[in-house]
């Protein structure tokens, strides 16, 4: 018995020593280091490496051809080996922004072991950092500041249309617990995303906290749904287990209805369980890419539901797809059902119909055709065009702009 106790004591001591090392020793390398002049220094300990590089969205992009078209991909920069096997690279001065990156060591991709901050995009993790130079810039807007904070909850709701219980993310603004009723923004993600996307990659909670604190946006509830109608929740958060995420949700699960058909289930739950204003003028919907397509379709299917509609780099389509060889503008002009829906939508006089896209986005042509259709019909909308492609850097900007325009 004494021998057994001795063995257990030794094992406990070894585990405790390892834990204490993690707490008080650990990795002493600083990476990334945001310098006073806006440059950023990366460091990686790799004494046996032959080649170390960093790739991230702070570097000039390169064009990559895919079956879906040309995409901008982050460039690559070499690190230089110094003493003690530490490799370094310092950027030029970067504009205020949230950036992502990974290392490549002899061709293999690695996360930065010195940086605990990271985000998941579909099945890929990247480290992140923020460059902030002055109050009010993008870096400041995307940071957690000393302002009143809203709460972010993961909420399960019943969707009779999809025949499953599903999860969504709900942001309630600071002061919600004190009473009162609030307008609601329904904020939708793109293909490959889920109900976590807008709070991690999109910094939605930080953006809303900071805009509301500065008086630039009205206090509102933000509902971030899961647009994959073959899934209950984000990967690993439902009964399918720890499967590898794919571009369009769970590979082997088949949906029984569309996002558009099932969306009233979301609104019904929110309006029953939260203190919300229930009028058209107190509801807004917006989304990026696939979520922009969902916002486009939902708003025309339910023309009296939303007074504010935002399409961010939206996937625009007629009759549920874009595989037709007929030009999109011709499809729109010739489809009787589509024209009837659009007439009902704009006949309901939405207060804001807002379209935003990058001029180098692979969905730019479809959005340009859609704007030609709207112009031809005399339907009123606002438009924002930016640089940079089909990327989160743009979608954070679009949310920031849209949130300041609604419920005024």
Overall description:
This protein is an alpha+beta fold and 408 residues long. The chain folds into 2 domains: 107 residues, Immunoglobulins (Immunoglobulin-like, Sandwich), CATH 2.60.40; 260 residues, Rossmann fold (3-Layer(aba) Sandwich). The chain has 10 helices and 20 strands. The longest helix is centred in the first third of the chain and has 23 residues. The N terminus is likely disordered.
Summarize the helices and strands and which ones pair or pack.
Blueprint: H1 2-24, E1 33-34, E2 40-45, E3 52-56, E4 61-66, E5 69-74, E6 76-78, E7 80-81, E8 86-90, E9 97-105, E10 108-110, E11 118-121, E12 124-131, H2 138-141, E13 151-159, E14 164-172, E15 184-188, H3 197-200, H4 204-213, E16 221-224, H5 259-273, E17 283-288, H6 290-301, E18 308-312, H7 328-334, H8 336-347, E19 352-358, H9 364-377, E20 382-386, H10 392-403
Parallel strand pairs: 15-16, 15-17, 17-18, 18-19, 19-20
Antiparallel strand pairs: 1-2, 2-8, 3-6, 3-9, 4-5, 7-8, 9-10, 9-12, 11-12, 13-14, 14-16
Helix pairs in contact: 4-10, 5-6, 7-9
